[in-house]
Amino acid sequence: MTIPISYSEHSTQIGLAVQKLKQALNDHTAGGTPAEAAGIVIVAGNAELASHSLTLDGSVEPEGYEIRRSDEGGTQVLYILAADETGAMYGAFEVAEQLRRGRAFTEIAEGVINARFPFRALKFNLPWSSYRMNECFDLQRETVKDLAFWRKFLDMMAENRYNALTLWNLHPFPYMFRTAGFPKATPFTDEELAEWKTYWTALFRMAKERGIETYLVDWNIFVSESFREHYDANAISDESFFHYGDSYSTEQIKQYTRECVTQLIREYPDLTGLGISLGERMNDMTPQDRQQWIEDVYYEGLKQAGRTVKFIHRAPFSVDPLITRTSIETNGFLPEPVWVEVKFNWSHAYSSPKLLMTHGGSNGMEGYWNPAPQNYKITWMVRNEDFFTLRWAQPDFIRAHIAENGQDYVGGYYVGSECFIPGADYSHIPDSPHIHWTYAFEKHWLYYMLWGRLLYDPSTPDAVFADALTRRFGPSAGQPLLEAYSHVCKMPMALGSFYSFTWDFTLYAEGFLATDQSEYNGGKAFISLEDLLNGKTLDPSFLSLRHYVERLLSEQPVQDYVTPLQLADQLEADASRGLAALSVVSGESPALCCEKADIEAWAYLSLYFAAKLRAGVNCELFARTGDEAERSKALTWLSEPHAAKHWDDLIRVTKAHYKEQPLMHLGKTPFTWELFRQQVWEDIAFVEALQAPGK
């Protein structure tokens, strides 16, 4: 006997969740179906509710759901009720999860769950016409062009309650169609273009079937090489035509882009919306000129399309909120709300849950939300340029972020990276028994689960994530693994709060790197002790090494700040607690060993950072006082058994399962932790060479 499930078989979304529900029921009732279980009924939408003589709880919102139990003739029927198919799908996922966690059918929790944010997006940079250029993008092209990859990726998104996929590249249009006015701007043959159209049509349809909106986001004044070859006698050379520079706009370019916008909306009816990234190739334009260009080209192209689509308006890099918000609030035709994207703490959101800067580090960005917007919502871009290889899981940081930044004017979040595509996994040693995943996002499954589930419902308890770990790695693993992750994965936020940064390549926490384009080769990106001494903090509640020593020597109070030594104590304590939690996890499966190795790596990074902070305090004290005892202490912290050993431990644990890999931050230099071992020891030489004051 099985438990029957009643639902509309015309709904692809609900059908997807029912597959998970059936699997959970089969596992749950392997020993026999409980007699008190009569069935599960899934109902979505007013018409279906009326046909079942059911009334939805009035508090259920779009994409929310209600779970209700009814005693019918001595047996229990479980109802999953929603105003829309997406909510019903999420409700079915929830019931399946509770069953997988071992909850009895008659104990499934009743109640109403609503989405915390209406916009819960993943940022995905495409590897063609890409904003960044590197081997790590090139090797993703075949994977990202494969619909089998997207099927799994979209399934993951749906189950984790993401409802928007934003696809980013410089100039997507030639990969999608040929315009009537500028046919030679598209370099593909008709057959090649037909393949591309099949690809995009299937991708947008698959997303829609899973309740996921799709947006194409481009960088405005860009055209294809073919356009420049055939339609621009004064074309910029390929070597000079990059994303950062003065405006490249002619009346032909404006007309071509308008046609592209219109044709895009007409040819792809399952595409939800379009986004613009106001600022690139507009360096010499005033804020008003930039906004006018968007109105003349994108707004007009959208108006001519004959179909209303949603719109993402990236906040301009040069801050003049009044110009942009006036344009959005008076446009009169864009559906509400428009999603206004703002980078949270520039390119490194894994620093602090406090909003300390936005793109460009500009002051005045608050003008977008004060006064409160009328017809748009702020959507925070949570950029990760800090860890691509090591798994990361820190649920309390995500909860704190949402609590701190979930004001009424906020519509949601984007989670993703500019410099990492979670497609083919190029970091792990191939053919290793560790590998139990096909794609990189499957390796980082917990990262995506944490953000998606907590953006939907921040009250989701840690037990949900611990149980997911238990199902993968055994009964002894779940809670200790999550606890270990939660401790050691504070390291990138500690570094990001203590060591100030700006754009993408100015910090890479898992490598202990900070670089810019002039410092790519030879492994010169390592954050040396001298860098830490010269560095400023991002978070003003933290004291830098030099400011701390200044206060110490002048006997100024420090109790209102996080000092370098307090941060070192916290890092060391977190590493110790993480390793202690890891020590109770039994089992030696290759998959579990790989997971544990990443936790160890974060712990050694934490211990290394802690030792280096302590050395920095002693080093600065020596530089100011000439006390040789302080120099001796600094050298001790930098040597064995402290910083040098911690870095060697990091090399040992990562070398066992990771290989050299391309990294945007290093250009053509492949990344490994071993690459920077020499720089670890150079810190010692730096301290030894210091002169006492007055000498």
UniProtKB/TrEMBL annotation:
One of its GO terms (molecular function) is hydrolase activity. It comes from the Bacteria. Keywords: Hydrolase. GO terms for biological process: carbohydrate metabolic process. InterPro entries: Hex-like_dom2. This is Beta-hexosaminidase bacterial type N-terminal domain-containing protein.
